[in-house]
From TrEMBL:
This is Glutathione S-transferase Gst1. Signal peptide: none annotated. Its EC number is 2.5.1.18. Keywords: Transferase. It comes from Marasmius crinis-equi. It holds the Pfam family GST_N_2. One of its GO terms (molecular function) is glutathione transferase activity.
Length: 272
């Protein structure tokens, strides 16, 4: 049943209070009215990862025009997926970890780095699943991409501060799709997620088939965190829409379970 927690709570929660680990700085776009959930779905996933690993962190908000100069000043690399297409581009999230002096960009790389650097915390990108997790996350962003023109107008007007709204190009807050075109987008998004969840059921490589997690492991992985980073946003805007309700019910309600369980295990706790 969606929302029913069938997993153990993070084993390191109590370490946080007595931790002397210096705070990692996570760069996200803002300011927004999302509060502790942050703006970028990728950065939101990293918050879930830091929460899950009980690593202390602070958020540093940048605006769209200040992503690149801030990243360059810190020494963060352009995002590899854009680099591969020969279009160097700087994106959030990126992090600075004062414990190691490392600066990293790209959410999957950050998630893997946290595993490597803090191996005593629960792993979220186990090496044997890294490729599958990476492919899953790429699919999540490409399946979701057609929703952007529909989701952004509401997001910009309702959730972005006026300071942040000004950094968006004129017209970014207007959906130019007809209602019929929007229905088609939803159909493609629902079909995309249906295919993806089926594929990951068939080829599941986890060891706990009754667990809701994407990889069917005993614990959540980066795949659940990134998926919930996206779905939290989509659900918050479209919770009452037919398309969202279909997505939530995919796999007999498994998608809804992943969101609820990930939020319960890895959700907001930013005060440190
Ligand atoms: N592959 C990157 C994608 C990150 C990404 O696309 N971030 C968006 C915000 S959600 C961004 O910073 N966009 C700024 C831009 O494209 O100029 C990751 O996983 O971190």
């Amino acid at each position: 049943m969606p929302g029913t927690l069938r997993v153990s709570l993070p084993r390191f929660a109590s370490n946080l209070a007595r931790s002397s680990t210096p705070k990692i700085t996570l760069y996200d776009v803002g300011p927004t009215h999302f509060g502790e959930m942050g703006m970028s779905p990728f950065a939101r996933g990293i918050r879930f990862a830091l929460n899950y690993k009980s690593l202390p962190y602070a958020i540093h908000e940048v605006t769209l025009p200040t992503i690149e100069p801030t990243a360059k000043a810190l020494g963060a690399s352009p995002t590899p997926s854009f680099l591969a297409r020969n279009q160097p581009r700087y994106t959030v999230p990126f992090i600075h970890d004062p414990s190691t002096g490392r600066v990293l960009s790209d959410s999957l790389r950050i998630a893997s780095y946290l595993d490597e650097t803090y191996p005593d915390r629960p792993l979220i990108v186990p090496p044997e699943k890294e490729t599958r997790i990476g492919q899953f996350c790429d699919s999540v962003s490409s399946i979701t991409a057609p929703l952007i023109p529909i989701i952004m107008p509401f997001t910009i007007s309702q959730w972005m501060s006026s300071e942040m709204q000004k950094t968006f190009p004129a017209g970014a807050g207007v959906c130019k799709l007809t209602p019929e075109e929007q229905d088609e987008v939803w159909e493609s998004v629902v079909a995309g997620f249906r295919g993806l969840m089926n594929e990951y059921d068939i080829k599941a490589i986890g060891d706990n088939q009754s667990a809701p997690w994407v990889m069917r492991g005993r614990d959540p992985s980066w795949a659940d965190m990134l998926l919930t980073g996206f779905f939290w946003w989509i659900r918050a805007v479209f919770f009452d829409s037919k398309g969202w309700k279909e997505i939530e019910q995919l796999g007999g309600g498994r998608v809804g379970s992943i969101i609820e369980d990930t939020l319960e295990v890895c959700g907001p706790r930013l005060e440190q």
